[in-house]
Amino acid sequence: MEMDLLHRFEAYIASDKKIEPKDWMPDAYRKTLIRQISQHAHSEIVGMLPEGSWISRAPSLKRKAILMAKVQDEAGHGLYLYSACETLGVQRDDTIEDLHSGKAKYSSIFNYPTLNWADIGAIGWLVDGAAIMNQVPLCKCSYGPYARAMVRVCKEESFHQRQGFQIMMTMAGGTEEQKEMAQDALNRWWWPSLMMFGPPDDDSPNSAQSMAWNIKRFTNDELRQKFVDLTVPQAELLGLTVPDPNLRWNEETGHYEIGEIDWSEFKRVISGDGPCNKERIETRRKAWDDGAWVREAAVAHSQKRADRRASTDTAAA
Amino acid sequence: MNARCEYLLRLGDDALILGQQLGLWTGHGPVLEEDIALTNIGLDQIGQARAWLTLAGRFEGKGRDEDQLAYFRSPAEFRNAQLCERPNGHFGDTIARQFLFDAYATELHAGLCQSEDSDIAAIARKSAKESAYHFRHSRAWMIRLGDGTEESHHRIQQSLNEILPYAGDLFHTDAVAASAASEGWGIDPSSLRDPWNSHVEEMLKESGLMRPESTSERTGGRIGQHGEQLSQLLEEMQVLPRTYPKAEW
Ligand SMILES: [Fe+2]
Ligand SMILES: [Fe+2]
User: Fold this and answer.
1) A298, B144 contact by CB (below 8 A)
2) Centroid of ligand 1 to alpha carbon of A74 (angstroms)
3) A contact test, residue of B93, B144, B157, B207 with most A CBs within 10 A
4) Of A219, A284, B142, B175, which is the most exposed, with the fewest CB atoms less than 10 Å away?
5) Contact B83, B50 (CB under 8 A)
6) How many helices and strands in chain A, by DSSP H and E?
7) Which residues contact A225 (CB under 8 A, 6 or more apart)?
């Protein structure tokens, strides 16, 4: 019996059919998805914080409106992803609990601080840019609800990337001080953005399985290379310097070569020792705890309403 | 300053200050759906502020645009109701502030749709749709919190008690308001007090909340008198354009 189900599952994967919530799936497949989708959801939510803190200081009303819309989109992404996760049998509140306890991870990029307005540009340009690289292939991932959530997410991500690049253009073409801010932002966000694609292929133990399940379509290093090839010319267009003395164009391969990524930093930040890990989780936890009475009130009110309706119904009967 | 510019600054500043404050909720809401809702309402307020301030700048006739008006005026030049600058506090405080404002704004925007000034009428038509949604949202939360648990009932009652005296500015009448009405391009906000009051009464009935004992109203926002909160809020909001006045963003 189990064997039949497994064969069917594998046949689905082999013919690139979508697995849906009611379909049988191997436990490991389910667990991998729950881990990946919840991490992804948490990244969207924690990712609201570094940018959100600049909404109040946005330098024009138009920029303020754009940034609010952008950060609000990220909240929406979190919502789609938590819903996708629920189709695998885990409740949103429990996943959130795991984030607050430190059990669940999120993208380490959001543990870096936003120090000047150009950071908002750099995040849209680089971080959302890298997210698009990662997420476009996920639109074809084998798990239906995740793939469909990604289609909606990707539509909005390109707007995020564009608004970020626009800020960078304005800053890089602005006053001396603005140029300095833009370069400073690129210096700080470049390497962490490259780390967003995850450890190098020879140090990424779960990748092969995810590729076999059609959850992943490209390796970490392949996606990183695509990103570098696309982004370096954009930096040149901006007149900014990519902070990598070893960066060079390889005529033969048709790709850029980059210097050594500091993977010890990546591991440090992922394991909780980045510049802002504590603040980010503290902030999320505080919002959750402060909101407990509101959530309780909403539940109590809808319960009372249902009760009242039931008692009028009985009275009427 | 001419009356129409002054009137439009009042509309624009209310929206701007509320939008600025609602933006502070982004990422900090009690539940993801409310994070989205509060940001969305804030976004509408910023949109309305931009429209009103742009128009105010045109009537002022000094070539100031929305950003010059938002970023280069001092607190005493702001014309927002004191209600709008009251701090966010907890979720209930924000909701109570927003409810009192929304109950006024739905009436205001509905009235301004009849303006003989086609620009004002156009902005009002767009705003009316938004404020109707805002009003449904804040009203639903007043009821939810009032009816919900003992704790939420107590908290939202407290919020209402504290914020209600600040509603006075919304109905401020003076020569500006009078010419708005007599010249047909605006309405005298003092005429909105009764319909506003019925919205409040209906909400009280449904939520089980009590109207706090009347205390004297706090007013002065429309003539540039504000609390401490506004200067702090503006300092934060205006920091970049004022630090780098030559920059474009
Ligand atoms: Fe996103
Ligand atoms: Fe994004």
Assistant:
1) yes
2) 4
3) B144
4) B175
5) no
6) 14, 2
7) A255, A256
Which stretches within A47-117 are classed as H helix?
48-52, 61-86, 92-101
Q: Do B30 and A170 touch (CB under 8 A)?
A: no
The per-residue pLDDT for range B52-107, each reduced to its tens digit, is 999 999 999 999 999 999 999 999 999 999 999 999 999 999 999 999 999 999 99
* Domain residue ranges of chain B, discontinuous segments joined by +: 3-212+222-243
> What is the CA(A128)–ligand 2 centre distance, in A?
5
8 A C-beta contact, residue B45 and residue B22: yes
Listed as ranges, residues in chain A with pLDDT below 50 are none
Residues B177-236: pLDDT tens digits?
A: 999 999 999 999 999 999 999 999 999 999 999 999 888 899 999 999 999 999 999 999
3-class state of residue A19 by DSSP: strand
Is the Cβ of B197 closer than 8 Å to some Cβ of chain A?
no
Place of tokens 């909606």: A152
pTM of the predicted structure, to 2 decimals = 0.96
Contacts of A252 (CB under 8 A, 6+ apart): none
pLDDT at res. B199: 98
Q: How far is A16 from chain B (nearest CA, A)?
A: 34
